[in-house]
Design brief:
The complex is a heterodimer of chains A (about 110) and B (about 120).
Chain A: E1 3-5, E2 9-13, E3 18-25, E4 32-37, E5 44-49, E6 53-57, E7 60-65, E8 70-75, E9 84-91, E10 97-99, E11 103-108
Parallel strand pairs in A: 2-11
Antiparallel strand pairs in A: 1-3, 3-8, 4-5, 4-9, 6-7, 7-8, 9-10, 9-11
Chain B: E1 4-7, E2 10-13, E3 19-25, E4 31-38, E5 42-51, E6 54-57, E7 65-66, E8 76-78, E9 87-94, E10 105-106, E11 110-114
Parallel strand pairs in B: 2-11
Antiparallel strand pairs in B: 1-3, 3-8, 4-5, 4-9, 5-6, 7-8, 9-10, 9-11
The chains are: A mainly beta (about 110), B mainly beta (about 120).
């Protein structure tokens, strides 16, 4: 079966750094995605990892360890607009995309 | 402009009355997918399609049907809707399976209420 775990909620301060973890167990692996979603809106793409290591994109970085079934999303220089849900999703070997339940991040002044 | 278009955006209907939510994409993507999103449960995949005439069940296919007769369209059909299908639905498309797993493009969502 598929199992993707991430924390339900996190709070961080404006200007700080926050790390959102994701662990997964899936039927095969074809890549891991991170999405941002504001309430009532469609998810928007943040990052994609298929090989082990760190991918950096501006204020956002994502790390993957396939042997550990583990990823994290790192957000630097937090801004108030970063308050949103962050979704971890794994593409399995059959090309089904399984999402975690999402992490609700609140950025405080 | 590259986009995924869902219709309707909002629908309130009654139990048992068949309905179809349409989804169309203009990016020539082979892969299309439907998700439902419920509070506390996250996004769950209902069905996906790797190409025309090829569909596969996701995590929660019960009570839904799909068809993929053309590459650009992937309608979601609720033959006999029930209140537990009240949810926010998203359609998405991508190039998954083409050796380039670029991210999905999502539609704006359809908020469905079944009374």
């Amino acid at each position: 079966g598929q199992n993707i775990d991430q924390p339900t909620e996190m709070t961080a301060t404006e200007g700080a750094i926050v790390q959102i973890n994701c662990t997964y167990q899936t039927s095969g692996f074809n890549g891991l995605f991170w999405y941002q979603q504001h309430a009532g809106e469609a998810p928007t793409f943040l990052s994609y990892n298929v090989l082990d290591g760190l991918e950096e994109k501006g204020r956002f970085s994502s790390f993957l360890s396939r042997s550990k079934g583990y990823s994290y999303l790192l957000l630097k220089e937090l801004q108030m607009k970063d308050s949103a849900s962050y979704l971890c999703a794994v593409l399995n070997s059959g090309y089904a995309l399984n999402f975690g339940k999402g992490t609700s991040l609140l950025v405080t002044p | 402009e590259a986009q995924v278009t869902q219709n309707p955006r909002y629908l309130i209907t009654v139990t048992g009355k068949k309905l179809t939510v349409t989804c169309s994409q203009n990016m020539n993507h082979e892969y299309m997918s439907w998700y439902r999103q419920d509070p506390g449960l996250g996004l769950r995949q209902i069905y996906y399609s790797m190409n025309v005439e090829v569909t596969d069940k996701g995590d929660v296919p019960e009570g839904y049907k799909v068809s993929r007769k053309e590459k650009r369209n992937f309608p979601l059909i609720l033959e006999s809707p029930s209140p537990n299908q009240t949810s926010l639905y998203f359609c998405a498309s991508s190039l998954f399976g083409r050796g380039d797993n670029q991210p999905q493009h999502f539609g704006d969502g359809t908020r469905l209420s079944i009374l």
